[in-house]
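During the reporting period the student researcher (J.K.) took over the structure-prediction task from the postdoctoral fellow and processed the backlog of single-chain submissions. One of the processed entries is reproduced below for the supervisory committee.
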Amino acid sequence: MKRAISGWVALVLLGMLPSPSITAETFCLNLETATTRELPAGWSVAKTGEGPGGVWAVVEDTTAPEGKALAQTSDQSPNPLFCLCIADGTSFKDLELTVSFKAVAGKLDQGGGPVWRYQDANNYYIARMNP
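J.K. obtained the following structure tokens:
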């Protein structure tokens, strides 16, 4: 069976590890009740590379379905630094994934995309989009 993940996010990267499953579930990043300027419960931050960066928070976004988005808010990202926001405790097999994101700002990089088989900040797969 397939599991669906959906949610409106700005440059969000999801961390998922494969595992056997016999039931279908839906995991949704629900920002309706999330507090702005904070990281949502059940999410953690990591980064590939050295230096400042990796500041994630819920922000107001009138273009998002719930009026909020999960955003990478720091512009202090030296090259190469990749900021990650990981959905803790997720483990999926046979996954159907839907992610919406948009590039708002950035000096060196405005890309992002979903991450899977996340082991640590230096070991994961990514499908990346650069506008």
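The committee noted the following: Confidence is low (pLDDT under 50) at residues 1-23.
J.K. will present the remaining backlog at the next meeting.
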